[in-house]
Amino acid sequence: MTKHKDGYLGNPNLKPVGVQQQFTPKQVQEYIKCSNDPIYFIQNYVKIVSVDKGLVPFDMYDYQQNLINTLHSNRFVIGKLPRQTGKTTTVGSYLLHYLLFNQNVNIAILANKQATAIEILSRIKMAFEYLPKWLQQGVVEWNKGSIVLENGSRILAAATSSSAIRGGSFNIILLDEFAHIPIQIAEDFFSSVYPTITSGQSTKMFIISTPNGLNMFYYYWKGAVNKQNGYIPVEVHWSQVPKYPGGPLRDDKWKTEMISKTSEKQFQSEFECDFVGSSNTLISSQKLHTMVFSKPLLRTKEGLTIHEEPIREDDEKKTQDHIYFITVDTARGQGKDYSSFVVIDVTQFPYKVVAQYKNNTVSPLLYPSIIKTVAKKYNNAYVMIEINDIGSQVADILHTDLEYEFVVKTSFLGRKGQTITEGFGGAKQNHLGIKTSVATKKVGCAVLKNLIEEDKLLIEDFDIINELTTFVAKKNSYEADDGHNDDLVTCLTIFAWCTRQDFFRNLTDMDIRLAMYQKEIDKIEDDLLPFGYYDDGIQEITVKDEDDWTGDGEDRWLITEKKDMKNWFKINTFRKIYDDGGIL
After folding, report:
1. Cis preceding linkage at 530, omega within 30
2. Which of 162-171, 247-256, 559-568 has the lowest average pLDDT?
3. Taking the domain 288-508, which CATH number applies?
4. What pTM, to 2 d.p., does this model score?
5. Out of 30, 141, 177, 302, which one is annotated catalytic?
6. May I ask the CATH architecture of the domain 60-270?
7. Which residues contact 123 (CB under 8 A, 6 or more apart)?
8. Would you list the domain boundaries of the chain?
9. Biggest alpha carbon–alpha carbon distance for the chain
10. Predicted confidence band at 512 (pLDDT cuts at 50, 70, 90)?
11. Is 177 annotated as catalytic?
């Protein structure tokens, strides 16, 4: 460290170590006020750079003051803020206050990119430089990525990772733009660093970001809103922000202009702070907004997540063994796609996802043992395996080597396509599992959409909901958006296809079509009337020429005596359309 009479390292705006400061009575009073009130300190002594006016005092808006008060009063805070709200400057100003008025504290600024973290630190350094000397601490170190002050406090900037602050002891950790950190890095960070933070009595963690889909940030935000994790949520809407410093608030005209310069999807994400900004997802965005995940009973490192234990026969509780169905997707275990399966309780309507497995490193040779273990746990569940690629090997090992008898088989029936079979009959080809195709995926996606949107399939699993938000229309079908995966959703589409099979209806004693569309059927029966005909209750309606009509039995439209015309037509017309497949 080098001292200069003009400041630290020749910078006259910085106070060197060891400089004796003579305080006036007014400065003492001001120092005490600043120490006790971060908002007073910021509004009176922190300066920021304005694009139009240059260096100006930081005159905070109401929502910025609310953010400062929340940070100051709570240990764990999560903020969902849109672009251009001054969130970086606001949080940086609070960190400067904490750094100056506390001794021997450590602060870490972590962002999705190291350059972003260094930019936040540079704003803090600039605000520090323009403080009066009697408010400054002597500077021990003044580096690009860190500051050390004479009071023993320091602050560093780095990219978020599991090793960024490993081994250190920090009083405050700021996670900036946390939603834009890759999910694997975010999970590694929380598993390795978070326990150390929460073990302290006064340590703080601030998570600040704009949304970017359903990821770790969404997980903690929803947990905070539902009061499940101890975080205090702070939210700002774009309409609370002035169009420009000192100007009127943003309005619908401003919104229209911004959308024209960017896009509707980008505006929804960056300004409306919408976690689900895509409009081309299989499941409607309105439904995705209402889907809420729950904390699982068990989540293992190997990839198994359990939400509900199997329900077995219990005379005291008057319960019978529940029926479970498992659908399986297989990957090669090379760290890319995931080997996944979902366990669904199909005992009654609505169906419910009770467990799931997701692992991208498990060997296909070991995978069958995992499937069998879970399947036996869930009352010898029926298992349907996708066998397009290496899945056929998994099915063979599970059925032949491990002798698990409840592996579902399919047959290929020519133009009728695949169907679930018991393994005998006139089928041209029988095999374990299902070979997915364009046709099976189309049916699976269509049925899955109805199951979820009509609340006939209950999903409270975070990973599945996350995949559904990025399962979008592509190439006349649906698949994961770029940079995401859809392995669990693939399992659900296979399950949805299975629900249309006679085997499944016999298994559950339930016709999924009738259960899903009963309201629509009732509406059709009420609304569908024969065009051009009505019964006034008096006139006899007859048909002279019987040859003019087609059909036979109940479907034959031949009236030779007075009838309840409306109800007769309604029932028989619906029966004809239903049988022809025109409705379902």
Report:
1. no
2. 559-568
3. 3.30.420.240
4. 0.63
5. 177
6. 3-Layer(aba) Sandwich (3.40)
7. 48, 88, 89, 92
8. 60-270, 288-508, 528-579
9. 117
10. low
11. yes
